[in-house]
Amino acid sequence: MASAAPGSSPAADILLMGQPNVGKSVLFSRLTGVRTIASNYPGTTVSLSVGRLSAAGSDHLVVDAPGTYSLEPLDDAARVAVELLGAARRIINVVDATRLERHLPLTLELLAQGRPMAIALNMSDEARHHGISIDAGRLAERLGVPVIPVVARSGEGIKALVEAVLSLPAPPPDQQGPGAVQHPSPHLHRPGRAVQDPALEHLHLDRDEIWQRIGALVDEVQTIVHHHHSFGQRLEGWSIHPLWGSLVVLLVLAASFALVRLLGEFLVSGAIGLGGAPWLQVPFGMQALFDRALEPLLLRLSAALGADSLLHRLLIGSLVDGRISFERSFGLLTSGLFIPLGLVLPYLLAFYFVLALLEDSGYLPRLAVFLDNIVHRLGLHGYAIIPTLLGLGCNVPGIMATRILETRRQRFVTATLISIAVPCAALQATIVGLVGSRGSGLVLLVYATLFVVWIAVSLILRAVAPGFQPELLVEIPPYRLPTARAVFTKLQIRIGGFLREALPVVFATVLAVNLLYQLNAFATLARLASPVITRLWGMPEESIVPLMVGILRKDVALGLFVPLQLAAKQLVIGSVVLAMFFPCLATWVVLFRELGLGDGLKSLGVMMLAVLGTGTLLNVVL
């Protein structure tokens, strides 16, 4: 396992370069096995994977660069890819064999750098299925570098690729190629001369010359014969049809949400069901594990410490009816462990599983493109829908998934919207159960209000936070059947990243909040907030308790409205305000970690204004 040193870029022995959706991640997994980590490039939120390949009697550092369509540094992903290129000793350019002409422009830009390179002609099996035949030997002869047909998913051609790339003469790690400028500045697209400002003055290959060369090259090395369309190809056509595509979107989203809910709830409580009473209950899940394995030990520790001691309040928290409540005791060893591991992690695992299925099947880019025209009008990017969908299960993976967005503004806007107007699955279940007992119309009113808030805040942020709004330029891959190896490798990397990044911070935050609670800081806050709650929102003063508990557990907090005997109007206002008011503890921590202190405070400022205005408006209108 290897990682980049803080503040520096990893000097790769082998750097995987290519456009998005060419199978680089699958090839990376095939080369490095499970000895991998996922991390952010220093100074950015661009994620990359680093691992080691054992071959030829030694270990070689392998880096999976972000996918980019060219070496033009127009966004963070392209800038990171270019910087990684400057430190790499050898390059593997991953090309989609089914779309050779579309991928060769980047190949020619990489060749112009004069660095040791081999080409992995990936998805060669799909090319054969489509009737596409590529003369790899002739292509290698014309380009002057090894060209190896591979199938990363099955491992076909991987051994030949490794032998080819390791046989390339590699320069020392600190030696720059002839077309490069001093690292870490952006590099020339064509070798020739030094420039004062490489970001502005770098040379370009002539575009007409590029396409003429590519056209002649493809005509020479590629042959296409007639073939019958498969079911997958017909499905590709249905997915982009204006009418049928909408139905496909609805079906996929409904199935994805149902699968996440089923799997997440099963991992938490052992219950199988989508709503109401579970269809089946088995003695399984994180709740059962904590209750049976950890609670007896903590009860003995509680008796030894004494319920009134400060150490007991910090480690165990408060006993509920003489027992430990992992949701409400709020000690380091109770809620501090159960919130991230028992509640967040199961849903995170479920969502990442579904996300991997959507990614590897090829549907995720289609979903982003299909919805891009709609969300673009709101100042969002098509890919913003993916973190938003994740947030419907748990806000933590939703906010972490904003890393896929290109600009800092897009990440700020999307993360802010998730924390304000996207209720997690646990809160949604309680809204349906508690508010639904007063009538389904009230449930629809709560969701309609949150949807209007999501649109309104999007439009406001678009107006007050202008910035570069990139178009959605994405290669649409063909549909593929996901492989278990690829799906579970992604799960391992992503879950490992969550445990390393979020778990220590959540644990430390539980300690800090617990100390504030012991100092009666929350009681003081309740007195200060009383005028807002009673006069502007029309709620009883005791409502501050559920709102503060909501920072720890939203669904539990909504249940605390029951003893207050609220009117229907008050219950709707309370549900909306609770959903918008301060994300849960784990989400709050991840929000600041992803956005940074400055943008995190801005996001919370937007949240406070939105919840204040929405609660007041509902009190006036209803």
Report on the structure:
- Helix content is 57%, strand content 8%.
- By secondary structure, the chain is α/β, with parallel strands linked by helices.
- The protein has two domains: 14-224, 3-Layer(aba) Sandwich (Rossmann fold), CATH 3.40.50.300; 357-621, no CATH class.
- The strands form three sheets. Strands 2-3-4-1-5-6-8 form a seven-stranded mixed β-sheet, with helices on both faces. Strands 7-9 form a two-stranded antiparallel sheet. Strands 10-11 form a two-stranded antiparallel ribbon.
- The radius of gyration is 27 Å and the shape is elongated.
- Residues 1-8, 34-38, 175-188 and 190-199 have low confidence and may be disordered.
Briefly summarize what is shown:
With 622 residues, the chain is α/β, with parallel strands linked by helices. It folds into two domains: 14-224, Rossmann fold (3-Layer(aba) Sandwich); 357-621, no CATH class.
